[in-house]
Amino acid sequence: MSLQEKVQTVAQEFQMLQADMAKVVEAREKLGTQQSENELVKKEFAKLTPSNAVYKLIGPVLVKQDQAEAKSNVNTRLDFIKGEIKRVEAQIQDIEAKSEQKKREFAAAQTALQQQQQNLEATTTA
């Protein structure tokens, strides 16, 4: 593989990593929104008395739901979301590390290519 091809390959790999990063960051933002919404629901549930009714929207219909079950569902959902946030943040760190590595590879390949071109120019003018 020539240095020119190596520079192009590394640049493409870096662009792919940046696209992956954009997707993962978007997923993290959605998870953050879901977490906020569920935290709000949990706070509202804390205000309920045992006599309050809780309804769940299923399609176009409101179905009465047991308060304890509803609270349990929200807590389970929050635990799941927190786990997903940890997983996505680990992906973000991994992609950042890979991106930094690709930046270094790109810089090294570009420098080598420039030196090769300078050496070529020096030998043709001499």
From TrEMBL:
Gene Ontology MF, one: unfolded protein binding
PANTHER family: PREFOLDIN SUBUNIT 6
InterPro entries on file: PFD_beta-like, Prefoldin
Transmembrane segments annotated in the record for this chain: none
Domain of life of the organism encoding this protein: Eukaryota
Coiled-coil boundaries: 71-119
Gene Ontology biological process terms in this record: chaperone-mediated protein complex assembly; protein folding
Signal peptide start and end residues: none
Keyword Coiled coil found: yes
Similarity section: Belongs to the prefoldin subunit beta family.
CDD domains per the UniProt record, alphabetical: Prefoldin_6
Protein name: Prefoldin beta-like protein
Pfam families: Prefoldin_2
Entries under Gene3D superfamilies matching the protein: 1.10.287.370
Keywords linked to the UniProt accession: Chaperone, Coiled coil
GO cellular component, one term: prefoldin complex
